[in-house]
Design a protein that fits this description.
The structure holds two protein chains of two kinds. Chain A is an alpha+beta fold. Chain A is about 65% helix and about 15% strand. Chain A has four helices and three strands. In chain B, β1 and β2 form a beta hairpin. Classes of the chains: A alpha+beta, B mainly alpha.
Chain lengths: ~110, ~325
């Protein structure tokens, strides 16, 4: 299969986004409860366009890793599943953020 | 909330398609959450206006097909995946048709040869061949799936269309596999019954005499032209369906008419003694079939009644689907 420049760029961007998405999602759930759709809207408003097919399974995976905890709350017209960082999730996020900042600085110093 | 009936049906079908593909252990929970988020999105998109089928289709198109969504959650592991399954079904139906043709030909030869054990052997060979062929076919399709490039058989997400979701509540046409099987099977039955039924007889020893027993009774032989006409019409119907791939009113009425013809023919089969169709009375006089012939007579009548009941139920369903619009049962609260 022949790879065009666009397809290669698209794939590399996807890979770069994928790792950062986890940090973005965890950061929004650091001290606020969100259900899937409200989190998606907030991330979109902040400039991070993320699809349902990426976000909802990601929330599930993070919960399975005990990084998130969730509960069903009847809020308005229907029950919604709210997520927030768990205690281990908060610890992991703080360390992850620290490492990520160092990595960004390193990459910046290499690239620029 | 304000959903049109068509929108509700579309959402119900989408969620049903998604549910059956999700990992079994977490299925209900994932679906409940997915549905809640989907309804939020739909309601925000529509504002205060009623959610139409068009809006629902637009949102579902953006979200992606049920196959695609299920895959993100870790799709249920299956031997043959959903994109490959229609091809598997088609090949399996062709294989089943060919094996059935060979079986029927073999059965006729066995009956004609007069060797009693050969008939039982033919049944055994047929069941063995079917099992072996399907096992081999499943293995081949599994290997194709396992070693094909990732995503090779998957649907193009940009071009998936919610309109193509199967709608079981509406009248649905027979699938390609069903049509192919029906054509081959009907053609074989026509050839066997019209070309070989009169010459077919098997020799049996009764006492010290050898007699030749025709397996079919006079009523069945008299019905052969009618049965052949029904099968020819059925072949024509399935060929048109395969060419047009449409399910319009004339085709649906034709399908219904064929079902009525089946009911009429099955009722004819219940007229008179079973011996008028299959010569159980002559079988009864032979050593091999003497003890089982009365049971076979009951089985024959039972099978005809069972097929008749199933055909009547299926026909009633077709009538209902032809005249009544389906009603959604989804809870969108």
């Amino acid at each position: 299969m022949k790879h065009t420049t666009e397809s290669v760029l698209e794939r590399l961007l996807q890979e770069t986004r994928r790792g950062n998405l986890t940090i973005a999602v965890m950061s929004r759930l650091y001290d606020t409860d969100h259900y899937g759709y409200s989190l998606q809207k907030e991330l979109t408003e902040l400039g991070l366009d993320i699809n349902q097919d990426t976000l909802y399974p990601l929330l599930r995976r993070l919960e399975e890793q005990d990084l998130l905890e969730s509960k069903w709350i009847v809020d308005g017209s229907r029950p919604r599943r709210y997520y927030r960082l768990s205690a281990p999730g908060t610890q992991v996020f703080e360390q992850l953020l620290e490492q990520w900042n160092k990595l960004i600085q390193t990459i910046r110093s290499i690239v620029l | 909330m304000k959903y049109s009936e068509e929108a509700k049906l579309l959402l119900e079908q989408y969620l049903w398609e998604l549910e059956r593909r999700l990992p079994f252990s977490r299925r209900k929970d994932i679906l409940r959450e997915f549905k809640s988020n989907l309804l939020d999105l739909l309601e925000e998109r529509s504002g205060d206006t009623q959610i139409s089928e068009h809006t629902a289709a637009e949102v579902l198109q953006e979200i992606g097909s049920p196959e695609h969504i299920a895959k993100q959650y870790g799709e249920e592991k299956v031997l043959i995946s959903a994109p490959l399954f229609p091809i598997f079904k088609l090949v399996a139906s062709i294989v089943a048709s060919v094996l059935t043709v060979l079986f029927l030909a073999d059965l006729f030869i066995s009956i004609g040869s007069g060797a009693e054990t050969a008939i039982f052997e033919t049944f055994g060979t047929f069941i063995g061949s079917l099992t072996g062929a399907f096992g081999m076919l499943t293995a081949v399709f599994y290997l194709i799936q396992r070693f094909s490039p990732s995503g090779y058989f998957e649907q193009d997400q940009e071009h998936w269309d919610p309109e193509h979701l199967p709608k079981p509540e509406y009248s649905t046409p027979p699938g390609i596999a069903e049509s192919v099987f029906s054509i081959i099977f009907s053609a074989v039955l026509i050839i066997l019954l019209t070309q070989f039924s009169r010459g077919l007889e098997y020799s049996r020893t009764i006492g010290s005499a050898h007699i030749y027993i025709p397996p079919f009774g006079s009523r069945l032989i008299a019905l052969i032209p009618l049965l052949s006409a029904r099968w020819v019409l059925g072949i024509g119907f399935h060929i048109i369906l395969l060419i047009k791939r449409a399910w319009n009113e004339p085709l649906r009425i034709s399908d219904l008419s064929l079902s009525f013809a089946d009911i009429a023919i099955l009722i004819m089969f219940l007229q008179g003694s079973p011996d008028a169709y299959i010569r159980f009375d002559l079988m009864e006089q032979t050593e091999v079939f003497g003890s089982v012939a009365p049971i076979l007579r009951w089985i024959f009548t039972g099978i005809i009644i069972l097929i008749l009941v199933l055909t009547v139920l299926d026909t009633l369903k077709k009538i209902k689907r032809l005249f009544f619009k389906p009603v959604s049962r989804i809870d969108l609260s």
